[in-house]
Amino acid sequence: MTEAKEANSFLVDSARLSEKALERKHELENNPASRKSPLAYFPEMEQLDSTVEAEVLAEMEAYDYNRYTAIDVRRALDHTTCSQEDFKALLSPAAAPFLEEMARRARQETSRHFGNTVYLFTPLYIANYCENYCVYCGFNCYNDIQRLQLDEQQIEHEMQVIAESGMEEILILTGESKVKSSIEYIGKACQLARKYFRNVGLEIYPVNTEDYRYLHECGADYVTVFQETYDLEQYEKLHLLGHKRVFPYRFAAQERALRGGMRGVGFSALLGLADFRKDALATALHVWHLQRRYPWAEFSLSCPRLRPIVNNDKITPQGVGERELCQVLCAYRIFLPYVGITVSSRESAAFRNGIAKICATKISAGVSTGIGDHEEKYEGHQEGTHGDEQFEIADNRSIDTMYADMSSEGLQPVLNDYVYV
Question: What pTM value is reported for the model?
Answer without folding.
Answer: 0.92
